[in-house]
Design a protein that fits this description.
about 750 residues; mainly alpha
C-alpha cells in the first residue's frame, strides 16, 4: 500500500473515532491489518473489539454502568493508539520520508535509546573532565563527540515509536535538571515534541509537563511548554479521552506563570502570520530602494571608511538625507518598531542561509546558540574579534538560534576585512537595539518571552524553509477561530487581557477576519463598552458586512450617543446599503456636532447629489471648498454637480481649474461632457481623445465609462440618436491615432 493510501486510511479512522463510530474504525483497521499480517496487531485489535461488544451487550441488558463513558473513552483512545502503530509499521517498509530514513540510519537503528543516552552521558562527563584539566586539544575533540552523540540521541528520541517502558525511564532521566548541558536538554525537548507530533503518546505528554514544571532552565521549560502547546493544537479533538492530561492542564491553568508563558507563546504564534508580509516588504520595497540608492551612496563613501568605520554611515547627514528621500528610513523605523514588539523581521534576510551542511542535521535546527559550538568555533576562528562577536551574538535577543548560526556560517568563507565589517555593523546595530530596549530591565522582565519568541521563529524556519518541510506538521496554518475554541486552553485564550491585546494587534495590522472573532468574544462580556463595539463594527465594515457593522454601530451609539465618529460610520453603512435618506440623517446629526468637518460636509453633499437635490449639494460642496485650505477636495464634486444642475458655464470654469492640475482620464471625460452640453462638439471630441490617451489608450474602458454617463448626456439636452454616432467617431479617431 502506498504511503498516500495509508495516510488516507488513517484519516478515515481518525474521523470515525472523532464521531465515536468504533465499528467503522475497526472495519478499516481489519483491512489494513491484512496487509501487515502481524499477529500481535491482530491480537490487540481482537481484544479491543471484544471489549466493545461486551460494553454494548451490558448496555442492551440494561446494566447501569456509571463507568460506561470512561470505558468507551478508553476504547477510543486505545483504537487511536493501535491505528498509529499499524500505520507506522506499514509506512516503515516503503516510506522515504525523512522520519523513516532517519529511523533506519545505521548510526541509531541497532541501538536502544538507553545505549545512546549512555554514550551521550559519558561524552558529557569526559568533556567536563577535559575542561577541568584545561586540555584544549582534548576539549575540542570531546566537544565534537558530545555534538555527534547529541545528534544521534535527538534522532532516536524523534523516531522512538513504538515506545517501551525503559525508553520512558531514559527520557525522564535525560530531562532531569543538571543531568545534561542546557543546550542538549533543550534539543531533547524539541526531539520529544517532534516525536509526539508524529504519533501521540500520553506518557510523553506527561514528561513534557513534568519538564516544564521541574526543570531549572528557562530555555528548557519554555521549549517544553511550546511542545505542550503544539501537541494540544495537533490532538485537541482527542485529549478529552485522557483524564490525566486534562486534569494536569487544568491544574496548570491555575498558575500565573503558566498563563503568562502560554500567552507569550500564543501571541508569538499568532504574530508569526506577519512574517511573510514583512518578508515581502523587505524583498519588494526596502531592498529595491536600497539597490537604487547604492550607486549614489557609495560614491560618497571612501573605501577605507567603509572598512574601518561602518558606523560613519549613520552620522553623515548627506547620506542620511539620501535614505530619507527614498523612504528607506521610514521603512527601517517601521521594521524596528515591529522588531521591538517581537515580530520576525529577519526571515527574508536569513532564508537563503539555510543551505549550509550544518543544517543537514535536523537537530541543528533546534540547537540553542552557544559560543563553544564547533560550528561557531570553525567559522569565527580563535581571534579575539571572533570571540567578542560570538558573545555579542549570543546575548542578542533579536535573532533566533537558527539565524545566529546562519550568521556565523556565512562569515566562514568571507575575507577577513568583510568579516570584521559585518561584525562591526552587527555590533553597532545590536548595541543600539539593546539601548533602545533598556537592555537590563528588558532582558530581565522579558527573558522567558524572548525565549518563546526565538524558539517559535526557529520552528517557523524549519517548517517554511527545510528542504523536506512538507513532511512536517505545519502548526502555523491553524485558523485563529479554531485556536480560540480549543477547550484545553480556553482559560488562556479567553482571558480578557490577552483578548484585548490580541484584538488591538489584529485590528492594527488589518486582520479583520480574525479581529471579528476576538471582538465578538469581548463584546459578549463587555456590552457597555462603546469602543469595543466601534472596533467590532469597523472590522465588519472593512469586510463589507454593512448590515452587521450597522447593527454594532447602532449599539455603540446607544451606549455613547452623539459620538461623531460613530455617527459618520453609521451614515457610511447606510449609504453603502443604498439607504441615502437614512445616511443623510446621520451625516446631518454629525454635522450639527462638528459643523466644520470637511469629510462630513462632503458626504452630505454626496447624499444630496444622489437625491438629485443639486442646489443643496452645491451649497455643501462650496462650504467644503471654502473651509479646505488647499482648495482641492470639492473641485470635482462642484464641477460634476454643476453639470448635472445644468449650470454649464460654472461647470466649465471648474473643469478648467481641474485640467490644469494633474487631470485624470475621467476629468477629461467629464470636461468633454460639459463642452458637448455647451454646444462645443469639436472641443468635446478633443477632450474625449485626451481621456483615452490618459488611460493608456484603453478603448474598452473608455467606452464603458462613456456609456455609463449616457443618461446624464440625454438630461443635458443631447439627442440620444446622436450619441452612438459621436462615440463611433471618437473610436475611429482614437484607433487611427493608435495605428499612426
Amino acid at each position: 500500500m502506498l504511503p498516500k493510501e495509508i495516510t488516507q486510511s488513517q484519516q478515515y479512522i481518525y474521523n470515525a473515532l472523532q464521531e465515536c463510530h468504533l465499528q467503522k474504525a475497526f472495519a478499516r483497521l481489519r483491512t489494513l491489518s491484512t496487509h501487515l499480517q502481524e499477529w500481535d496487531v491482530d491480537s490487540k485489535l481482537n481484544e479491543l473489539e471484544t471489549s466493545y461488544h461486551y460494553m454494548i451487550q451490558y448496555m442492551l441488558d440494561g446494566v447501569d454502568d456509571p463507568e460506561r463513558t470512561l470505558v468507551h473513552n478508553r476504547l477510543i483512545a486505545a483504537t487511536y493508539n493501535i491505528t498509529d502503530l499499524l500505520c507506522d509499521k506499514m509506512r516503515a517498509s516503503s516510506d522515504l520520508a525523512l522520519y523513516y530514513t532517519t529511523k533506519k540510519s545505521h548510526r541509531i537503528a541497532n541501538k536502544t535509546l538507553s545505549q545512546l543516552f549512555t554514550s551521550l552521558d559519558n561524552s558529557v562527563n569526559e568533556l567536563s573532565l577535559s575542561e577541568l584539566m584545561s586540555n584544549n586539544e582534548s576539549i575540542t575533540s570531546r566537544r565534537k563527540e558530545v555534538e555527534r552523540n547529541a545528534e544521534d540521541f535527538f534522532d532516536k528520541v524523534w523516531t522512538n515509536f513504538p515506545t517501551h517502558s525503559d525508553d520512558y525511564a531514559t527520557l525522564r532521566e535525560a530531562l532531569q535538571p543538571h543531568h545534561l548541558p542546557e543546550s542538549v536538554s533543550a534539543m531533547v525537548v524539541s526531539a520529544l515534541t517532534l516525536n509526539i507530533v508524529h504519533s501521540f503518546d500520553e506518557t510523553k505528554f506527561d514528561i513534557l509537563i513534568d519538564t516544564y514544571l521541574h526543570h531549572d532552565s528557562a530555555e528548557v521549560q519554555i521549549r517544553a511548554l511550546c511542545g505542550i502547546f503544539i501537541a494540544i493544537l495537533r490532538y485537541h479533538s482527542r485529549l478529552h479521552l485522557y483524564g490525566n492530561i486534562s486534569s494536569r492542564i487544568s491544574l496548570l491553568s491555575d498558575s500565573e506563570q503558566f498563563k503568562t508563558d502560554m500567552r507569550n507563546i500564543l501571541f508569538q504564534f499568532i504574530r508569526s502570520r506577519d512574517t511573510e508580509k514583512i518578508s515581502r516588504k523587505m524583498t519588494e520595497e526596502i531592498l529595491p530602494k536600497m539597490m537604487k540608492i547604492s550607486p549614489s551612496l557609495y560614491k560618497k563613501i571612501k573605501e577605507e571608511d567603509a572598512l574601518n568605520e561602518i558606523e560613519s554611515l549613520e552620522r553623515n547627514p548627506e547620506w542620511q538625507e539620501l535614505l530619507e528621500k527614498t523612504g528607506v528610513t521610514d521603512n527601517i523605523m517601521e521594521l524596528n518598531e515591529l522588531q521591538m514588539q517581537g515580530a520576525d523581521v529577519f526571515m527574508s534576510t536569513f532564508a537563503h542561509l539555510k543551505g549550509f551542511s550544518f543544517f543537514n542535521s535536523l537537530s541543528n535546527w533546534f540547537v540553542p546558540f552557544v559560543t563553544n559550538h564547533s560550528a561557531v568555533y570553525d567559522a569565527l576562528g580563535t581571534e579575539e574579534w571572533g570571540k567578542r562577536f560570538a558573545d555579542i551574538l549570543r546575548s542578542s535577543g533579536f535573532l533566533c538560534n537558527s539565524d545566529k548560526y546562519s550568521f556565523c556560517l556565512s562569515l566562514a568563507h568571507a575575507p577577513i576585512e568583510q568579516r570584521q565589517m559585518m561584525a562591526s555593523q552587527f555590533r553597532s546595530e545590536n548595541a543600539q537595539m539593546e539601548e533602545d530596549a533598556k537592555a537590563e530591565l528588558y532582558k530581565k522582565s522579558r527573558e522567558r518571552e524572548n525565549i518563546s519568541n526565538r524558539y517559535i521563529q526557529d520552528l517557523y524556519r524549519l517548517i517554511k524553509l527545510h528542504p523536506r518541510r512538507s513532511e512536517f506538521f505545519d502548526i502555523f496554518t491553524t485558523p485563529l477561530h479554531e485556536l480560540l475554541q480549543i477547550g484545553h486552553i480556553t482559560p488562556i485564550t479567553h482571558d480578557e487581557k490577552l483578548l484585548k491585546s490580541l484584538g488591538e494587534y489584529l485590528f492594527k495590522n488589518e486582520y479583520y477576519n480574525d479581529a471579528v472573532q476576538i471582538f465578538g468574544i469581548l463584546t459578549h462580556d463587555n456590552f457597555t463598552n462603546s469602543e469595543l463595539y466601534q472596533k467590532y463594527a469597523y472590522c465588519h465594515q472593512a469586510l463589507s458586512n454593512y448590515h452587521d457593522a450597522l447593527e454594532l454601530y447602532l449599539k455603540a451609539d446607544l451606549i455613547k450617543p452623539n459620538h461623531v465618529w460613530t455617527l459618520r460610520h453609521i451614515a457610511i453603512c447606510y449609504r453603502n446599503m443604498k439607504k441615502v435618506d437614512k445616511a443623510l440623517d446621520y451625516f446631518i446629526r454629525a454635522n450639527d456636532i462638528d459643523p466644520d468637518n470637511l469629510s462630513i460636509n462632503l458626504n452630505i453633499g454626496h447624499c444630496y447629489l444622489e437625491q438629485k437635490n443639486y442646489d443643496k449639494a452645491l451649497n455643501f460642496y462650496f462650504k467644503v471648498d471654502f473651509l479646505d485650505s488647499k482648495g482641492t477636495k470639492a473641485r470635482r464634486p462642484i464641477a460634476w454637480c454643476s453639470f448635472l444642475a445644468g449650470k454649464y458655464e460654472q461647470a466649465a470654469s471648474w473643469y478648467q481649474k481641474i485640467l490644469s492640475d494633474k487631470p485624470t482620464a475621467l476629468d477629461y471625460l467629464n470636461a468633454a461632457h460639459v463642452a458637448w452640453a455647451r454646444g462645443n462638439l469639436r472641443d468635446a471630441i478633443s477632450l474625449y481623445l485626451q481621456s483615452i490617451k490618459a488611460d493608456s489608450n484603453d478603448l474598452n474602458r473608455f467606452t464603458q465609462n462613456f456609456e455609463h454617463d449616457i443618461p446624464e448626456l440625454i438630461d443635458a439636452g443631447i439627442k440620444a440618436e446622436d450619441i452612438p454616432i459621436i462615440l463611433d467617431h471618437i473610436l475611429y479617431q482614437a484607433s487611427e491615432g493608435k495605428n499612426n
